[in-house]
Design a protein that fits this description.
The chain is an alpha+beta fold and 118 residues long. It folds into two domains: 57 residues; 52 residues, no CATH class. The protein is 33% helix and 8% strand. Strand 1 and strand 2 form a beta hairpin.
């Protein structure tokens, strides 16, 4: 039987995850799936004043914001594209362009994007 590893969340990570639950149209279940954590754990954190977002605090006030996304269809290929060739392309505000191919670590990608937009 495989042994489970327990994830230890920092206070800052807990605050960030709890803050995401108050974004318009986002449910606790969606946030829980994003971080592969049980929704009940997020509800537990939300009950703790240390992690619960202050009333009137939204993602925008905390420096988080959603960016517009445009899905552009590329020229059709004549053969099926293997999963390793899938790619995502970002155009950031500072004129930076980033292309990610294959699999990626979402947290590392988010840190990179934050670094480029500062």
């Amino acid at each position: 039987m495989a042994r489970r590893t327990r994830r230890l969340w920092t206070d800052e990570e807990k605050r960030s995850i709890c803050l995401q639950t108050i974004a318009p149209g986002v449910s606790v279940a969606q946030v829980a799936l994003r971080y592969a954590v049980n929704a009940n754990l997020i509800f537990k954190w939300l009950r703790d004043p240390k992690y619960r977002p202050a009333p009137g605090t939204g993602p925008e006030e905390a420096g988080l914001r959603f960016l517009p996304v445009e899905i552009v269809r590329e020229v059709p290929v004549t053969r099926p594209m293997p999963a390793a060739e899938n790619r995502i392309e970002f155009e950031l505000a500072g004129g930076h362009r980033m292309r990610v191919s294959g699999s990626y670590d979402p947290e590392a990608l988010a840190r990179l994007i934050r670094g480029l937009t500062v």
